[in-house]
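Shipment paperwork, digital attachment
Item: protein structure file
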Amino acid sequence: MPTPPAERPPFRVPVGTAANPVLEQDVLARLMALGEPEEFGVGDTLFRAGDEELDFFVMESGRVDIVREATADSRARVVAEWQAGEFLGELSMLTGQASLLTARIVEPSRVRRVPNAVFKQLMSNDGELSEILLAAFRARRRLLMAAADRTTQIFGTEGSAAALALRRYAARMELPHRWTDVSTEAGRAALEASEHAGLDLPLVMSRGAVIAAATPLALAEAVGLAYRYRDGDEFDLVVVGAGPAGLAAGIYGASEGLRTLVLDALAPGGQAAASSRIENYLGFPSGVSGAEITELGLVQALKFGVRLSAPAEVTALSPREGGHELTLAEGDAIRARAIVVATGARYRRLPLERWADFEGGSIFFATTELEARTVARRPAVVVGGANSAGQAALYLAELGSEVGLVVRGPDIAVKMSSYLVDRVRSHERITVHSSSDVTALHGGEQLEAVTLTSSATGESEDVAAAALFCFVGAEPRASWLSGAAVDASGFLLTDVDLPAVADAGRGPLPFETSLAGVFAAGDVRHGSMKRIAAAVGEGASAVASVHRALAAH
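Attachment content:
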């Protein structure tokens, strides 16, 4: 039985937009010169969904459809078409992700094929062309987030910690996907129609693969984003952690000629990605979200050839001749001449009964759109007295929630920036509970209320809360790094806080830990400023020391 034709969109990607820029003749000629001409007939494919390490294609003549293949509940659909003078491609060409789509020739075509390796060199070395292509790739990915959402489908229940972890990963990686809440009638019907209703949730379906009890790692493996060993894999620099410090280290390392790999146990962004709005970051007078900073930093890193894998949890570091060996949780070993540890810190959990029951479903450590959608204008409690807590309280209040901001100290002005203090105090939907602690959690399957106890009077009150957002304390993510000198709280000691570097016979370089060739940047480091701008500076500065260390060997 012949395959039914793909549904066509009502319009082409408009010419002259960011996603389909008009190329000047000299720019088009430069792109054409990079590839060899090839002839294709109707029905031929340039690439298929699932292909990896795609070449870059420029259309010399003819027409090609970009097709989202059929799924269990929908026909194949044309999401874009490209004609003479236009080029194919989007961000997956840089991330290493397997293609989500198929490129099918619909008119006899002459195409210039630019090998993947040549394309990546172009992106790193040609500023003018890479700027044009990056802008188009980013715009196309935004279009695909809606047009190709059925390439990956996530089924689960709202309030499920496991489902939220999947959705958060997909969102941070800008992976086109469709979320279906099976606790709704429509969601249950969609799951039944998929013929996989008996499998454990959360359930992922992606390009024919069906993953029950799915995790972010399983999803990453299905779409080609997990770390995979390649013959000859050995790096000059491996950065562990992809928050602002880690991404900065990756960018400066790769842009200065180092073979660079960035790993993160969760997804790029770190704590910064959890911030709904940052208004005191240089260069963004109108403010910027943590997600935007992460997206821009990630694209910049990919432009310079950084190889990034997430989730990829490092569990051990051991010395080897000429450098170090990192061990991943899945057992893979990665060799590197130098390491930058930028794993950051995590917010502390409160020692309360039933905390584990609610975490991930009603208790969160971030305030992105995903968590805010879970609250849905219902009352919420934010715990913490620094900028992250203030930003979270304002974000939730602006979305319509009544917010209780619980601060252990007597005054929120002690640790919070003054511009946030003024806004928090004046907002009609925010109540500040100073000198107070959350002492009990109440609810059934989901949180319904918390008990607040004043340290000043000893009095307690119950406050309605559909969710609790926790931004207190900081625990360094460095327990895997055995043998490194740390302070009393577990933060890594570096440079001036160390007498010498092990087995190096010299004093430590700036940002170097007690382990020779292992550097630390950002929140994981003792004495760091715990600010995004400072973390970026530390990541860049640590790479300067990496160069000095490598030059000495």
